[in-house]
């Protein structure tokens, strides 16, 4: 009888189902334990298992490396297209359909009319840009100027200027100078470049000062170098490397043009 009462008391005190502790209770807003943070891949896999993954077949769940490169190029093109659509109208003053004119009262502040170069500004400045990317050559500046437009006093000064310029002088305009092929050569062109300084304006200033020093020295006693011939070895060497025949049969300084075509070879009018 006593044993039955003891069993009955224990049954009343202890519940039939065990009560969960506070630490094991989970609210309705909590995440499942299956979604808990998993260990990193390198913490679970050994070296042999990692090499075994290389033998697995491709599951077609990602694109290839060339596909990622193509997507990156498309994103880059879209970036510049957005600049053209939203930023370019601010520079030229043409307002787009979604541009607020009240926020930009001086949209034409950067707009400048085109003024052709004059003999007072004969310098042609060339710069380098890599679409915003940093590059050592971005600070380089190159100037090209025709000798006929320089303030040289006499023909002897022009001759001395060519001698002082050395290989920087060429009878024809450089191919990367932006000068038309139909432009008369005259006394040639001089090209000076500089990339010794980290700031582009400093390189341009050095090149401009070097040109001023050449002009100043050429105008001092120019008759002392009249009997010195001009060295054309750099011109012949460049023409020979081009393999176009410009160094043959006197075409180095007198390249034939369409104006040299014999008129007697032209067909006569048949009327």
Q: What descriptors fit this protein?
A:
alpha+beta; about 35% helix; 4 strands; 4-stranded antiparallel sheet; about 270 residues; 8 helices; about 5% strand
Write up this protein.
The protein is of the alpha+beta class and 271 residues long. Helices cover 33% and strands 7% of the residues. The protein has 8 helices and 4 strands, in the order αααααββαββαα. It has helices at residues 2-13, 41-44, 47-53, 65-86, 88-92, 155-165, 200-218, 233-242, and strands at residues 124-127, 141-146, 169-170, 189-194. A 4-stranded antiparallel sheet has the order 1-2-4-3. Helix 6 crosses helix 7. It is elongated. The termini are far apart. Mean pLDDT is 76; it is low at 13-24.
Quick structural gist:
With 271 residues, the protein is an alpha+beta fold. 33% of the residues lie in helices and 7% in strands. The protein has a 4-stranded antiparallel sheet with strand order 1-2-4-3.
């Amino acid at each position: 009888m006593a044993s039955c009462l003891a069993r009955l008391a224990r049954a009343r005190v202890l519940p039939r189902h065990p009560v969960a502790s506070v630490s094991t209770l989970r609210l309705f807003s909590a995440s499942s334990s299956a979604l808990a943070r998993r260990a990193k891949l390198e913490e679970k896999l050994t070296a042999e298992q990692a090499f075994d993954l290389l033998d697995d077949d491709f599951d077609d769940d990602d694109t290839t490396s060339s596909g990622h490169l193509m997507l990156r190029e498309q994103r880059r093109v879209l970036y510049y297209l957005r600049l053209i659509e939203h930023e370019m109208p601010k520079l030229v003053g043409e307002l787009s359909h979604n541009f607020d004119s009240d926020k930009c009262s001086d949209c034409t502040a950067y707009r400048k009319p085109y003024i052709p170069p004059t003999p007072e500004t004969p310098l042609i400045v060339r710069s380098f840009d890599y679409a915003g990317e940093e590059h050592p050559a971005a600070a380089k500046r190159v100037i090209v100027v025709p000798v006929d437009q320089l303030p040289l006093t006499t023909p002897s000064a022009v001759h001395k200027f060519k001698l002082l310029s050395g290989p920087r002088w060429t009878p024809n305009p450089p191919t990367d100078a932006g000068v038309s092929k139909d432009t008369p050569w005259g006394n040639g062109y001089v090209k000076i470049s500089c990339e010794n300084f980290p700031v582009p304006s400093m390189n341009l200033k050095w090149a401009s000062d070097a040109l001023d020093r050449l002009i100043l020295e050429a105008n001092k006693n120019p008759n002392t170098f009249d009997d010195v011939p001009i060295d054309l070895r750099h011109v012949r060497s460049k023409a020979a490397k081009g393999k176009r025949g410009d160094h043959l049969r006197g075409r180095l300084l007198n390249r034939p043009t369409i104006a040299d075509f014999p008129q007697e070879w032209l067909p006569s009018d048949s009327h």
